[in-house]
TrEMBL record:
This is 3-methyladenine DNA glycosylase AlkD. Signal peptide: none annotated. It comes from the Bacteria. It comes from Succinivibrio dextrinosolvens DSM 3072. It holds the Pfam family DNA_alkylation.
């Protein structure tokens, strides 16, 4: 294999001249799979293709590819048809960890949204987009657009999870809650995403969140799930949890 050497003051990094191949990446993932873990994961996501590779190992493989191959090639290579969850997670890590201009990263984020078809890849992708912390002005317009995509449940969940991870400060509270008023879906993972978001807003910003939630149209199932998640939080006192449980809709 041809190699190119990149020198720094302390280290020598070796990059492959060989072209990136999803087939090669698949083989690396397959060599690390565990059948028992696949069976466990499949029960949590029965409709998703899963190899059975633990997340820390997937991350380790993806980060190695980021060091050894061209960033541009990793980002521009389309995922295989019917990709496994682990392959999608690798792509999510490529997008989230690549050292690129943030506007270019957002373009890749938009493109990747069509591949999000389950809670695991949705939430995993969101957790990789840590660059959002320092680039709210660039990312927030995208999140607002995603809240309006009623026909794609995991795009809605993406908006919820990104909001609870990166936009849960009080300055975004009113607008985000207003977007929840427009969500009309029977999708379980959207309900869970909304509930998780409300609970996060509450633990960060207090009772005013539930007062505002009560002013919008929110189905009883999602509302009660949000209350449940609040009571599961370690940041809420026992006395407050008692009061929260009394707010449950019958």
């Amino acid at each position: 294999m041809e190699q190119i050497y990149l020198f720094s003051k302390k280290n020598v990094f070796v990059k492959n001249m060989k072209n990136f191949s999803w087939n090669d990446l698949y083989k690396d993932l397959e060599n690390s799979k565990e059948e028992s873990y696949r069976e466990f994961s499949q029960k949590l996501s029965p409709d998703i293709k899963i190899l059975g590779v633990r997340i820390p190992i997937v991350r380790k493989i993806a980060l190695r590819y980021l060091k050894e191959y061209s960033t541009e090639e990793l980002l521009s290579s389309p995922l295989p048809d019917n990709a496994y969850l682990e392959e999608k997670l690798c792509k999510a890590i490529f997008i989230g960890r690549a050292k690129i201009d943030e506007k270019k990263r957002i373009d890749h984020v938009k493109e990747f949204l069509s591949y999000i078809d389950g809670w695991a890849i949705c939430d995993g992708f969101c957790s990789e987009l840590k660059a959002c912390k320092d680039n709210h002005k660039l990312y927030y317009p995208l999140i607002k657009k995603c809240f309006k995509v009623q026909s794609k449940p995991f795009t809605l969940r993406f908006a919820c999870v990104m909001s609870l991870m990166y936009f849960s400060d009080a300055k975004y509270e009113d607008e985000i809650i207003s977007y929840l008023n427009n969500i009309n879906t029977e999708e379980y993972y959207v309900h869970m995403g909304v509930a998780w978001l409300i609970a996060t807003l509450y633990t960060k910003n207090g009772q005013s969140v539930l007062d505002k939630v009560n002013s919008i149209v929110l189905d009883d199932k999602t509302y009660n799930k949000a209350l449940q998640k609040i009571t599961e939080s370690n940041y809420v006192s026992k006395e407050t949890k008692v009061q929260i449980r009394k707010m449950k809709r019958r």
